Amino acid sequence: MKKTKIFAHRGASGLVKYENTIDAFNKAIEVNSDGIELDVRKTKDNVIVVNHNPDISGLIIKDHTYQELLTKTLSIGYKLATLEETLIFCQNKIFLDIEVKEPGFEQELITLVMKYLKYDQFYIRSFIESVIIKTKEIDKSIKTVLLISPKNSSDIWCNIFPNKKIKRTSCDIISPHRKLVRLGFIKRMHRKNILVSIWTVNDEQDMKKFIKKKADFIITNYPDKAKNLVK
Questions:
Q1: Of 6, 119, 141, 199, which residue is the least packed, with the fewest Cβ within 10 Å?
Q2: What's the sign of the alpha-carbon dihedral 90, 11, 136, 172?
């Protein structure tokens, strides 16, 4: 039987002080995670950096240079990672699941990623459908992951039954929030040959449930716990 793969959310973010850092990625490797989920944005001077929020302590990433942002993070106590140094650090060590937080730099991103990784070493994921569509237009061999969230209650049934979104984007993997995995979600997706990557699963009982239901991927802040449960 194919085992559920465990991806470390923003690195092993529950095991270190600062998420989305080289330290967090190193910890994910140390605990034998199957992959790392990380977030990317672009600075004012066109450096692709690893950060979840659109700002760092009030400094909007797209409105500031990398050096300005780096100075801010160093004053806080950590180093803002660029995507390139992350790729170099993780190359041939661990799989990368790269979440694009903003549209508009897909070609730059793909060119950079392909400089260091092969097709079977990364995914491109996003909540933004245009990012998934653009990625496939640039290179259809890249595996893409469409994220879906329960936040918009008016769209809840479109997310529990995301067939139209899958068709629109031609994504390879669907990534629902754990609350959307209802009404036979995993089995329905598997019948369509779509893999399922569930986020963010930190409760051990939820981990056990999704492993038992044969989720393809679990994204968690605590990959050490999830890996032990898979074993």
A1: 141
A2: positive
What six digits make up the tokens of 155? 């769209």
> Both ends of the chain: CA-CA distance in Å?
12
Distance CA 90, CA 80 (A): 16
Closest CA to 54 of 37, 39, 72, 65: 39
Nearest to 45 by CA among 73, 74, 68: 68
Residue 92 phi/psi, 5° resolution? 65, 15
The first and second tokens of residue 40, run together, are 């990317």
